[in-house]
Write a structure and sequence with these properties.
about 450 residues, alpha+beta, 18 helices, 11 strands, about 50% helix, about 15% strand, elongated, membrane, ABC transporter permease, Macrolide_Exporter_MacB, cell membrane
């Protein structure tokens, strides 16, 4: 009977090609609009490190005090150098790494190649195992090189390709600004999106992979300025020079810690509270600083990593899909009710309401499948053209894959079935006696 109903539906659709085309386009365009914006939203809100996101945390310390709260300032997103180094020395986490973005100029060994600017991060050795960074060659440096303030570097696969043609460059030297660095590792293609450990610099959240990583201690020795955000609220009276900057309450260092379970997270929160109390007792603050330990997923919400325009676009596209569904309901209702005489004859010959429902649902499924095919085509076009609406760094994250294709087909079928519910119910309740008498 299903095959019979499908044949009836195909004949009915062929009988009214214009009406059929309108229904297919309504569903296809509505589904495509939703799937295109969903592809972008999914990309920017995805879990950047699924296997470890529940173990990664950001410590926050309110060194600005209650007065800042009255001025609308929230707890600082970053730490001062003093606090970051104190937490690093305590080492209460399985892995931990202080991070700040830096920029250098590469001077190639080939004199025919002009120097060029690169961006990277100064961090600690535990950065790489904590974030599961994969290596094509070599590895990260170790803790002894952090302590020795060694001039070592881990470079990206892109920079390795640019300088060494993609060959194993471990042990070779790279010249950054006025200093030589020994390459200890070359990362594989690794650039988690969003770049969760660097969301304080919004322009880098969805940008390309960092070009290099150098030891935090070495960067500080060279008095390398941060290439990211900083805030010196309440630190106007700091001492001049680099040491004054390090000793100030300016916040510019990010700190990430890996805590394997709930007990470890609870213990670290207690440690943070104790540290804040010690700083107050030492006279650094005349208030007890609030402390927070924010998980990765919560951190992305706090930092508003998902651009508001992607969320708004998703809501608008869902609203557009609803409008398309309403139009489809009207078209299906007109189509089904024009066949009232046919329905009356079938009912008079013994067809039940259930069989009428099955017949028209089968026809709606065919409309949904055709709408799904149209939706796939329009979604593909939408993904290719998404750069006209969103920033290039965000637009390049959206792409067609098998899951998006399947979801497009399923949404199209669900939309067509939803749109068919009321018209099918009306068709199933046609009175055969009245139809036979009037016709």
């Amino acid at each position: 009977m299903l095959a019979y109903y499908l044949r009836l539906g195909l004949r009915s659709l062929r009988r009214n090609p214009i009406l059929t085309t309108l229904m297919v386009l309504a569903i296809g365009v509505g589904v495509a609009a939703s799937m295109t914006t969903y592809a972008v939203f999914r990309a920017v809100s995805a879990n950047p490190i699924p296997g470890k996101s529940g173990q990664l945390f950001v410590p926050r310390i309110d060194i600005w005090g209650p007065q800042a709260r009255t001025q609308g300032r929230r707890v600082p997103d970053m730490l001062s150098y003093t606090d970051a180094m104190a937490l690093m020395r305590a080492h209460r986490a399985v892995n931990q790494a202080a991070i700040y973005p830096v920029g250098f100029t590469v001077v190639p060994q080939d004199s025919s190649v002009n120097p060029f600017a690169v961006k990277g991060d100064a961090t600690y050795a535990e950065f790489f195992p904590m974030f599961d960074a994969p290596f094509a060659y070599g590895s990260g440096w170790d803790a002894s090189e952090d302590e020795a303030h060694a001039a070592v570097v881990v470079i990206s696969s892109r920079l390795n390709q640019q300088l060494f043609g993609g060959a194993d460059s471990v042990g070779r030297t790279i010249h950054l600004d006025d200093h030589d660095y020994r390459i200890v590792g070359v990362l594989a293609n690794w650039n988690p999106q969003p770049r969760f450990y660097d969301v304080n610099v919004y322009s880098r959240t969805f940008s390309g992979a960092p070009d290099f990583f150098v030891p935090f201690t070495h960067a500080v020795d060279l008095q390398t300025d941060t290439n990211g955000n900083s805030s010196c609220y309440g630190s106007a009276g700091r001492a001049p020079g680099w040491q004054g900057w390090l000793q100030s309450d300016c916040v510019w260092v990010s700190l990430w810690v890996q805590l394997p379970d709930t007990a470890a997270a609870r213990a670290y929160r207690s440690f943070l509270k104790g540290y804040a109390a010690e700083q107050k007792a030492a006279g650094r603050f005349d208030w007890l600083p609030e402390v927070q330990l924010v998980g990765l997923r919560q951190w992305m919400d706090v930092e508003e990593v998902v651009p508001p325009e992607t969320r708004m676009s998703l809501f608008l596209s869902i609203g557009f899909l609803l409008v398309c569904l309403i139009n489809t309901i009207g078209l299906l209702l007109a189509k089904f009710m024009r066949r009232s005489a046919e329905i009356g004859v079938r009912r008079a010959l013994g067809a039940s309401r259930t069989e009428i429902v099955r017949q028209f649902l089968a026809e709606s499924i065919m409309v949904g499948l055709a709408g799904g095919v149209a939706g796939l085509l329009f979604t593909g076009i939408g993904v290719l053209a998404i750069g006209l609406v969103f920033e290039p760094d965000i637009a390049r994250l959206a792409h067609m894959n098998l899951s998006l294709m399947l979801l497009t087909i399923l949404l199209s079928l669900a939309a067509s079935m939803t749109a068919a519910f009321y018209p099918t119910w009306r068709a199933a309740n046609v009175q055969p006696a009245w139809q036979l008498k009037s016709n």
